[in-house]
């Protein structure tokens, strides 16, 4: 008799790595569209050029490591890294900046550690931090949003990327920057006097964050990740912002809604914090992991010197993820609570 | 140490047992001061001289000092040598002395030096000990300079800047601008750059070792095709 012998578990995951990655790519689309609407074609050019460099770096690394280039390129993980990094970069960045960032992401953060699944740090955020500490000038220049300044066209975006020497960038402080440097105006007056502020946060930024929230919600619906880490991060960020809001004085850290809809909050919460490789694994661990990221984001945003804090916060907590997992191991089925204790 | 032939010592110090990239000793100065070539050369020279002095002195007293107090005695010798170097640098290369700062006195605690004193000089005659100190120092300094060159080149786009700190005013013009109009890659000069580039150098060394091993394996004599193994079992009448 030829009976097939299959051992349990029999659960079958319908999602391949490739499908997961493609879904993540798809979920970034609303955010990219809104970014392009408010800040012009800079982000799109970033992403196009970044994807080319990422695929080239990935192919090179796979070839050097003697892996199956075609098979691993098709899992789209390099593309996801490129998309995430290029969305985080300022639009109208020069080509070499993007290339250095992508190369750091793919080669340094991913393949030096053994490739997809073995990287202790989020590759896109490593690339971002390498650029931020190496080229602070280029990395803190954001274009003014539509409605505040002129938005460059496609040709100008290409020129800014590939012939950076001949392009005069128009830049403006981001709302987060303006708020941190404010120490004399009440928030109400600051809102009136500074053109970048919209209803709750910066003009453009509000809608960018809402778009990434929508993309993230769709991923959640598709069960690409669980709700724990992003919700914990957003909740702790909002809680801290509420605690230190102090009614909008000149020393205020900004309202909770401002922090939720500013900078890379939503993008970070749903596309960076949820990285399955570098985050904590257990559900309780994810809650702690996300909450501590929120705390760090608020602290660095209000007290630090950098334009945004998501990258640093995520990298610091990546360090801590194995530690969190160690202390939040779930109870195995059949064991009672506290049974292992004497 | 069984083999103290000078050829073996040289091979060990420069490549097979290089203090910086194989033993991974003395990483603190290696990572901290290699931001430029001139710093690396300065610290490298100081380390070479200290290693030679301490190895010689330790070798001379190796039969007098008892085992129980050998480490304090070694440290005293090393500290004396380092103090001399410090005073010399203060006299002849004051700016460099200031740049190297705490890392000059810290040569005393550099594990390479104590390691060679206890591991080699304390059980060998004076001449091999002196030579071992020299060649280990060279091995360490070469890695320092290589690392310094990589970091300076990427971090500033130029090489050999400020060489006048070490070699007198005539050396001020030695600077080579490799990339003009270069956007400085600050990461290379900052501490993470030191770790990353040290790792890269170790990787390169391991790759070269692998290649050499493969090449040597290929050179080994193989039995000719079709030859048969000699029967060794069974009874021989």
Describe the SSE topology.
The complex is a heterodimer of chains A (342) and B (237).
Chain A: H1 17-27, H2 29-39, H3 42-64, H4 69-73, H5 77-88, H6 95-111, H7 123-134, H8 136-139, H9 154-162, H10 175-181, H11 187-193, H12 205-221, H13 228-243, H14 256-260, H15 265-272, H16 283-303, H17 310-327
Helix pairs in contact in A: 1-5, 1-12, 2-12, 3-5, 3-6, 5-6, 5-7, 6-7, 7-17, 12-15, 13-15, 13-16, 16-17
Chain B: H1 6-16, H2 27-32, H3 37-60, H4 70-92, H5 94-100, H6 111-119, H7 126-156, E1 158-159, H8 164-167, E2 176-177, H9 186-189, H10 191-219
Helix pairs in contact in B: 1-7, 3-4, 3-6, 3-7, 4-5, 4-6, 7-10
Q: How many individual β-strands of chain A?
A: 0
Q: What is the distance, rounded to the nearest whole angstrom, between the alpha carbons of the first and last residues of chain A?
A: 50 Å
| Sheet with the most strands, sense and barrel status of chain A | none
The shape of chain B is: flat
> Which residues of chain A sit in consecutive blocks of at least 5 with pLDDT less than 50?
none
Radius of gyration of chain A: 21 Å
Q: Rough shape of chain A?
A: globular
Low-pLDDT runs of chain B: none
Secondary-structure element order of chain B, as H and E? HHHHHHHEHEHH
End-to-end separation of chain B in angstroms reads 48 Å
What is the element string of chain A, with H for helices and E for strands? HHHHHHHHHHHHHHHHH
């Amino acid at each position: 008799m030829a009976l097939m012998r299959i051992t349990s578990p029999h659960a079958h995951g319908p999602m391949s790595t490739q499908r997961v990655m493609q879904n993540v790519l798809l979920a970034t689309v609303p955010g990219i569209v809104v970014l392009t609407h408010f800040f012009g074609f800079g982000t799109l050019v970033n992403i196009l050029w970044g994807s080319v460099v990422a695929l080239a770096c990935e192919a090179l690394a796979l070839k050097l490591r003697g892996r199956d280039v075609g098979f691993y390129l098709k899992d789209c993980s390099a593309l996801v890294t490129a998309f995430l990094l290029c969305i985080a970069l300022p639009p109208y960045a020069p080509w070499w900046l993007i290339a250095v960032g992508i190369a750091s992401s793919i080669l340094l953060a991913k393949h030096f550690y053994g490739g997809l699944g073995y990287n202790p740090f989020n590759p896109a955020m490593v690339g971002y931090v390498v650029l931020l500490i190496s080229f602070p000038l280029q990395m803190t220049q954001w274009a003014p949003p539509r409605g505040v300044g002129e938005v460059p066209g496609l040709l100008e975006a290409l020129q800014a990327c590939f012939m950076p020497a001949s392009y005069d960038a128009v830049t403006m402080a981001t709302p987060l920057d303006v708020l941190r440097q404010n120490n004399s105006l009440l928030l109400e007056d600051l809102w009136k006097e500074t053109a970048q502020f919209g209803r709750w946060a910066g003009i453009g930024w509000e809608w960018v964050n809402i778009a990434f929230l929508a993309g993230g919600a769709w991923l959640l619906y598709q069960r690409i990740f669980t709700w724990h880490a992003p919700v914990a991060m957003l909740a702790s960020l909002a809680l801290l912002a509420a605690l230190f809001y102090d009614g909008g004085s000149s020393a205020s850290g900004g309202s909770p809604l401002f922090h939720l809809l500013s900078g890379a909050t939503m993008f970070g919460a749903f596309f960076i914090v949820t990285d399955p490789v570098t985050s904590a694994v257990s559900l309780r661990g994810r809650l702690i992991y996300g909450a501590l990221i929120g705390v760090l984001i608020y602290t660095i945003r209000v007290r630090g010197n950098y334009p945004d804090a998501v990258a640093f916060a995520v990298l610091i907590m990546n360090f801590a993820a194995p530690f969190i997992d160690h202390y939040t191991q779930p109870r195995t089925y059949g064991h009672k609570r506290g049974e292992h204790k004497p | 140490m069984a083999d103290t032939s000078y050829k073996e010592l040289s091979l060990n110090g420069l490549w097979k047992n290089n203090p910086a990239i194989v033993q991974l000793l003395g990483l603190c100065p290696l990572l901290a001061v290699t931001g430029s070539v001139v710093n690396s050369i300065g610290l490298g020279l100081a380390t070479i001289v200290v290693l030679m002095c301490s190895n010689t002195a330790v070798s001379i007293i190796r039969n007098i000092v008892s085992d129980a107090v050998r480490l304090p005695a070694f440290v005293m010798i090393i500290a004396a040598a380092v103090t001399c170097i410090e005073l010399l640098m203060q006299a002849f290369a004051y700016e460099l002395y200031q740049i190297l700062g705490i890392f000059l006195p810290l040569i005393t605690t550099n594990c390479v030096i104590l390691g060679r004193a206890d591991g080699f000089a304390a059980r060998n005659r004076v001449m091999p000990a002196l030579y071992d100190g020299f060649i280990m120092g060279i091995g360490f300094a070469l890695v320092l300079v290589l690392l310094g060159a990589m970091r300076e080149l990427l971090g500033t786009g130029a090489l050999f800047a400020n060489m006048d700190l070490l070699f007198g005013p005539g050396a001020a013009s030695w600077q080579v601008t490799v990339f003009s109009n270069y956007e400085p890659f600050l990461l290379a000069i900052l501490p993470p750059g030191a770790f990353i580039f040290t790792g890269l150098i170790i990787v390169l060394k391991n790759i070269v070792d692998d290649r050499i091993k493969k090449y040597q394996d290929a050179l080994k004599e193989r039995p000719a095709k079709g030859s048969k193994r000699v029967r060794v079992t069974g009874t021989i009448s």
